[in-house]
Amino acid sequence: MLSFENVSLNYGSFRALNGVSLQARDGELVVLLGANGAGKSSIFLTTSGLHKAASGSIRFGQHELVGMKPSQIVAHGVVHCPEGRKLFPQMSVLKNLLLGAYVHRSDKAGNRSRLEEVLALFPILDDKKDDAAGSLSGGQQQMVAIGRALMGRPKALLLDEPSLGLAPLVVKQVFEVIQQINRAGTTVLLAEQNAFAALKIAHRGYVIENGRIVMEGDRDTLMNNDAIRKAYIGA
Q: Helices marked H in 70-191 — which ranges?
């Protein structure tokens, strides 16, 4: 289980997270809903060790993540797929994917097997594995970003705005893959502004505003809440 207990994060004098507590139990797909600047990305950056919490605890299984190096966090099975993809555009698709396996670089056989799984999940990437990542469409680049994260062998996958800037048909395809990853046993924490698409595949969700969790519930509770529908679904 991935759990946050009273986590706070400061950017200088600005408090980006204020006493955040939430959980993603083993095998769950949990969605974080919130507007730009609400704190979704800050939760992920703190979890992955790129920012250090000012206070509180982030645990994955028996491991306390606060204070760990990002590479150690990945080695323990928590992998972050960041907003904006963050690919190396001049490098090939294959090299971008293999970068995700860096912490497992000594296990060459395991990485080959994992690569086969990723390319089976995204067949188009097999066709384009020698192409520069920057030459791909937005949807294909998002597939590379998710595939690179999967190469890290996550037990818990943090997906930050995977549908951002994608056409509706591509969004549908990406969310189907996310659901497939979750059904295969990977815990998923998904940050999304596309609340309707995210809630359709989620088990539970949290709403974050101004660095605080203001609401939580299962998929149906959030989907049928009038305030949520008005603020995030547009109905």
A: 70-75, 93-99, 108-121, 123-127, 138-151, 168-183
Strand partners, 204: 30, 218
Classify domain 2-77+154-233 at the CATH topology level: Rossmann fold (3.40.50)
**Closest alpha carbon to 26 in 164, 148, 186:** 186
- CA dihedral for 97, 129, 168, 174, sign (positive or negative): negative
* CB distance 85 to 138 below 8 Å: no
Q: Where are the domains of the chain?
A: 2-77+154-233, 87-153
pTM assigned to the model: 0.93
Q: How far apart are CA 113 and CA 118, in angstroms?
A: 9
Structure tokens at 209: 């505003």
Distance CA 70, CA 21 (A): 21
Residue 7 burial by CB count (10 A; 0-12/13-18/19+): exposed, middle or buried? buried
Distance (Å, rounded) from C-alpha 48 to C-alpha 117?
24
For residue 94, the tally of other CB atoms under 10 A from its CB is 18
Residue 233 predicted with pLDDT over 80: no
Give the number of residues written for the chain. 235
- Tokens 């809630």 belong to which residue? 199
Tens of pLDDT, residue by residue over 11-64, are 999 999 999 999 999 999 999 998 888 999 999 999 999 999 999 999 999 999
**Tokens (6 digits) for 123:** 């067949």
What tokens appear for 191 in the block?
């940050």
> Within 10 Å of residue 60's Cβ, how many Cβ atoms?
20
The contacts of residue 154 (CB under 8 Å, 6+ apart) are 77, 78, 79, 186
